Amino acid sequence: MTSSTIAAEPGDRTADRSVLSGARRIVVKVGSSSLTSIKGGISEEALTALADALAAKRNAGTEIILVSSGAIAAGLAPLGLAKRPRDLATQQAAASVGQGLLMARYTQAFGAHGVTVSQVLLTADDLMRRSQHTNAFRALDRLLNLGVVPVVNENDTVATHEIRFGDNDRLAALVAHLVRADALVLLSDVDSLYDGPPSHGAKRIPLVEGPHDLDGVSIGKAGKAGVGTGGMVTKVEAATIAAGSGIHALVTSTANAAAALAGEDVGTWFAVNGARKPVRLLWLAHLASVHGRLVLDDGAVKAVRHRRTSLLPAGISAVDGDFEAGDAVEIVSADGTVIARGLVNYSAAELPQMLGRSTRELGKALGRGYDREVVHVDDLVLV
């Protein structure tokens, strides 16, 4: 395992962009809009320029993981599609065609600098299950140790709506945590976050120290090109996830990639404002599809929120939704305030008969297997 020498300490706000100039491990994410040409398809010029900047950083000793969108966009022209399809099946088909084309271009562009790249396709399932995310970490860590630049993308060909990350910005934030990166750099076609529309004279926001710094700021969604899925809003969400969990984050344009990696004053810097968390809990807090909710009495709310205990059936007053064992649910107070998310050990059909009863009583009445927690503390995250 490669350890970082400059990982942020919780609450360390003194670190600045100079972290990027000396980082040992950086995750860089690039969006589809930054890689596509005016005519559609992948822009050779844009991809080569990005590869030049990243390969230079890699050859200077920094380990780089590239989270790259663009597979669906690359597959549009070969399939005769004029724009990004809306239906999942056609998106999967375009990704299947485009992913190979995208990797061929990256292989050539990085190869010109003597840098080897690899393809790593992930689904949300790979990061939510302990054995799978452990395997994903080991594979990525070994590739980095061998001097390879892993090119990561969501496995669009097999991912369903239920297990999608939603966009590669969030995927990049989770990958940064998975590999214990020093920093996350989110690249798009916008050079920085602004306090309003740049065309209307808005000012650049150079630093975000916490969510309060973005109060009143209108953040844009996906651009007019129609080839991406996120826009600035998902980049801010991803940067906020990273900074709130101990990883420095920068949002800037792909044209600024080399300057950003050199630690120059470009883009919007998100200062660390929290401690690192297990990647499963980040997924649960920010990405998991919620299938229902458990309503707690006041005593259970205090136990979960303040004493960080597992959730027992005795403290649950109501169940809402249709879920199976292992699904994510919201945990709410009597007035509907969401206090946590968790992975539930029982289905919605099983729980009603268990409410308000102790685990000892349930074990005697219903048999072994019903004397467990409803949500174990290791599968619960406060929100």
Provide key terms for this protein:
five-stranded mixed sheet; single chain; 383 residues; alpha/beta; 13 helices
What does this molecule look like?
This protein is α/β, with parallel strands linked by helices. The strands form two sheets. An eight-stranded mixed beta sheet has the order 3-4-2-1-5-7-8-6, sandwiched between helices. Strands 10-9-11-12-13 form a five-stranded mixed beta sheet. It has 13 helices and 13 strands.
Please outline the major beta sheet. 8 strands, mixed
Helix-and-strand structural type: alpha/beta
The end-to-end span amounts to 31 Å
Quote the average pLDDT.
Answer: 85
Can you give the helix content as a percent range? 25-40%
Strand order of the largest sheet: 3-4-2-1-5-7-8-6
What is the general shape?
globular
Give a brief rundown of this model.
This protein is an alpha/beta fold and 383 residues long. It has helices spanning 18-22, 32-35, 44-59, 71-76, 88-111, 124-128, 130-145, 168-178, 232-243, 257-261, 279-286, 298-305, 359-366; strands at residues 25-30, 63-68, 117-122, 149-154, 183-188, 207-208, 248-253, 268-270, 290-296, 316-321, 328-332, 338-343, 380-382.
